[in-house]
Amino acid sequence: MSDESLNFEKAAEAAKSLPERPDDQTMLRLYALYKQGSSGDVQGSKPGFFDFVGAAKYEAWEKLRGTSQEDARTQYVDLVRKLGGTF
Q: Under a CB-based contact definition with an 8 Å cutoff, are residues 19 and 50 in contact?
């Protein structure tokens, strides 16, 4: 496993126990960066109108379309560190 992949996995664990819960926009950014870093471009169909949370997650991930998995992983690690995650 590369250092980049190892840091990404450590950051994912650290994100579960941040000192403070981030605001909703930051949580969506974390979700989208994690999905882009682990799965690549958005997949599947957008959740229905009444699934507000699912639709917001999908849209946040969709905004990262075209971002490489490596860039998304780096941005994710940086964001978790900025939020106080230690690993």
A: no
**Tokens 């905004």 label which residue?**
63
Which tens digits make up the pLDDT trace of 28-61?
Answer: 999 999 999 999 999 999 999 899 999 999 999 9
Q: Which DSSP category does 49 fall into? A: T
Domain containing residue 35: 3-82
Radius of gyration over alpha carbons of the chain, in Å?
13
Is 87 part of any domain? no
Residue 44 DSSP symbol: S
Under 8 Å between Cβ of 29 and 61:
no
